[in-house]
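In this section we turn from sequence analysis to structure. A common task in structural bioinformatics is to predict how a protein folds when a small molecule is present, because the ligand can shape the pocket around it. The inputs are simple: the amino acid sequence and a SMILES string for the ligand, here NAP. Study the lines below before reading on.
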Amino acid sequence: MTATAADPRHTDPRHTDPRHTDPRHIVLTGATGQIAPLVARHLDARHRITLTSRTAPAAAQRAGVRHVACDYDDPGSLLHAFRGADALFVVTNDPTRPGHDRNIVRAAIEAGVGHIVKLSAAAVHDSRAHDLITRWQRANEERIRDSGIPWTMIQPRSFMSHALAWAPDIRRDGVVHALHPHSRNACIAPEDIAQVSARVLGDGGHHFQSYQLTGPQPLSAHEQCAVLSELLGRPLVCRELSRQEAHARYARRYSPAMADALLAGAERQLAGAKAGTTDTVERLTGRPATTFAEWAAGHLDRFA
Ligand SMILES: NC(=O)c1ccc[n+]([C@@H]2O[C@H](COP(=O)([O-])OP(=O)(O)OC[C@H]3O[C@@H](n4cnc5c(N)ncnc54)[C@H](OP(=O)(O)O)[C@@H]3O)[C@@H](O)[C@H]2O)c1
């Protein structure tokens, strides 16, 4: 978990002094995804912020934030987007394309990026996790650790926003469909992941740290359904999916290999692997992690 002492970045106060708060150039990949736009909102307005993705975000960004188009398959576009970055937030989402993270790390080295903050996953610590997604995230982390660039790993449990996938069925007939509906997951609000990420980006005090992030309590789909029912003021039914039904639903959205990996993750959840909590959100933000009820109340219009 340590980098080589010969790395010149270790003698550069920009990279070692946690009190370094000068305006920085921060590049966030995943501009059109869930987390990076939230990170941009939490960053100090004095920073120069570049959001990157293939397509431009639909919503206008605040002043001081620009969008630069890039494609993980196009190393030249990555080098262009990363040049001069003091810190880089890395979001990739396709485990069948390991070349994406390889291209990103190569471009970051060539561009002289000062700090990589990687959106990874809590499952990398689970010795029983051997699925495609977890193996991919472990390899991504290793590549970054070997890059010589100071790094920070953000390792969240499942996003609370997965519940948004229930919204159409809830609106239509008040039913939530879930595999293993009584198994618990200490899921986390995307806002909390974003606030922690904004806190550490470019801050030497967080170099070479891995942060496992969870919500404040483990909850089952059944319990989340009860929270939503209470907030909406109407009964909801939580219906159990068989493994075959769940796999078929995953396969409608993802490749067969991804569907297998998601099913394996659900089996580990059933075995209790995703119920543990950490206090990392509170330690790094100074406030308790968001509860599912708080998150759901903030997104109730999507379910109503
Ligand atoms: N969901 C969870 O519960 C969970 C839990 C733990 C960890 N994670 C991790 O969180 C990460 C984010 O996952 P997500 O599915 O939620 O991602 P996402 O929010 O959908 O974001 C993916 C972003 O990557 C960009 N992108 C994809 N392919 C690209 C390419 N070829 N070139 C440039 N940009 C590209 C997309 O932009 P364009 O398509 O517009 O280019 C998009 O902005 C993943 O690494 C996942 O493993 C997720």
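Residues 1-20 have pLDDT under 50 and may be disordered. As an exercise, try to locate the residues that line the NAP site and compare them with your own expectations.
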